[in-house]
Write a structure and sequence with these properties.
By secondary structure, the protein is an alpha/beta fold. The protein has two domains: 220 residues, Spore Coat Polysaccharide Biosynthesis Protein SpsA, Chain A, CATH 3.90.550; 96 residues, UDP N-Acetylglucosamine Acyltransferase, domain 1, CATH 2.160.10.10. It has seven helices and 28 strands. The strands form six sheets. Strands 15, 16, 18, 20, 22, 24, 25, 27 and 28 form a nine-stranded mixed beta sheet that branches. The chain has an eight-stranded mixed beta sheet with strand order 5-6-4-1-7-12-9-13, sandwiched between helices. Helix 4 crosses helix 6. The two termini are 40 Å apart.
Length: 341
């Protein structure tokens, strides 16, 4: 089976980290998040993935010169201009010559969804499109879906007010499509799958949805990206065994950590340097980051080659961009973003 991964977004909510790299290439406990998505697809007999690219496409292409990840063939579809979600799906499908049932996943969603069960449900319902659903407390940030007892979609409302939402089941960003869906996506213009295609399919009675109890997280914000890292530290299965894990701290062997460092739920990536008597709690240090003596960093993301000055106190929730230098004795808390934002 083939799958399209949508990775064209600019990741604006994760700036300044996404100025240097696309959000799907940000490291999730030392491994690009994209590779975690590939590992999940590979477990469900996906043998070819088409990356739908828009923002910083060369970073993806240069990172995988063998055109393969986790044993899955990799091809690219670079949008000539932004085409929105449905336009990107049509462009990628045509570029790769997709002519059979296929999957679409969002590259910034981390989940252990049973994709095989979703595909089987799609075929049993003879659907043109099937949406994976996830239940949340507050659906106002998402596309909300209401279904009948057979799973046929009766209403699809994009980002409603909380009190107006028809259900608490949201579009989880994983879809199964038959090639017929491409016929309802207008060519050569921006088309939203959420706002145009899904409502049309629902009106035709050919859109279905299936809920399950899978782990699911949208990693598009600093808080949720940090939480995804913590979840992996605590054993969330992304298709790999974590080596170099000590308690709930993962440390790359190339990093240097001085005596007296206290850590909890911490990621210390390659070539990082951590000084004496540092405290790291719920923190991701990306490659080459430096934390000077006596600093305390909590609930924060520290970008590649950034420097945290000695005896500084950061968090929550600080996002420090690549190569940014935080002066010593700094005191920073709240939604702080440091770098070229």
């Amino acid at each position: 089976m083939k799958s399209i991964i949508l990775v064209g977004g600019k990741g604006t909510r994760l700036r300044p980290l996404t100025f240097e790299m696309p959000k799907q290439m940000l490291p999730l406990v030392g491994l690009p998040m994209l590779e975690c998505v590939f590992a999940s697809l590979a477990k469900h007999d996906v043998d070819e993935v088409v990356l739908s690219l828009g923002y910083l496409p060369d970073q993806f292409i240069d990172a995988y010169p063998l055109n393969s990840i986790s044993g899955v063939k990799l091809t690219y579809a670079v949008e000539p201009e932004p085409l929105d979600t449905a336009g990107a799906i049509r462009f990628a499908a045509e570029t790769a010559g997709i002519d059979d049932t296929f999957l679409v996943v969002n590259g910034d969603v981390l989940t252990d969804l049973d994709l095989s069960a979703l595909v089987s449900f799609h075929h049993r319902r003879h659907a043109v499109g099937t949406i994976a659903l996830h239940e949340v407390d507050d659906p106002s940030r998402y596309g909300v879906v209401a279904t009948d007892s057979e799973g046929r979609v009766e209403a699809f409302v994009e980002k409603p007010a909380r009190e107006a939402a028809p259900s608490n089941f949201i579009n989880a960003g994983t879809y199964v499509f038959d090639p017929a869906v491409l016929d309802v996506i207008a060519p050569d213009r921006r088309v939203s799958v959420e706002r145009e295609v899904f409502p049309l399919l629902a009106q035709q009675g050919s859109l279905f949805a299936m809920a399950d109890n899978a782990y699911w997280i949208d990693t598009g914000t600093p808080e949720s990206f940090l939480q995804a890292n913590v979840d992996v530290l605590h054993g969330f299965d992304v298709g790999r065994h974590l080596e170099h894990l000590e308690g709930t701290t993962w440390r790359h062997p190339s990093s240097t950590v001085a005596p007296g460092v206290r850590t909890r739920n911490a990621v210390i990536d390659r070539d990082c340097v951590v000084g004496a008597n540092v405290v790291l709690e719920n923190v991701v240090l990306m490659p080459g980051a430096i934390v000077r003596d006596g600093a305390q960093v909590r609930n924060s993301l520290i970008g590649p080659r950034a420097v945290i000055g000695s005896h500084s106190v950061l968090g929550p929730t600080c996002v420090v961009g690549a190569e940014y230098v935080v002066p010593e004795h700094s005191r920073l808390a709240g939604s702080v973003k440091l770098g070229d934002i």
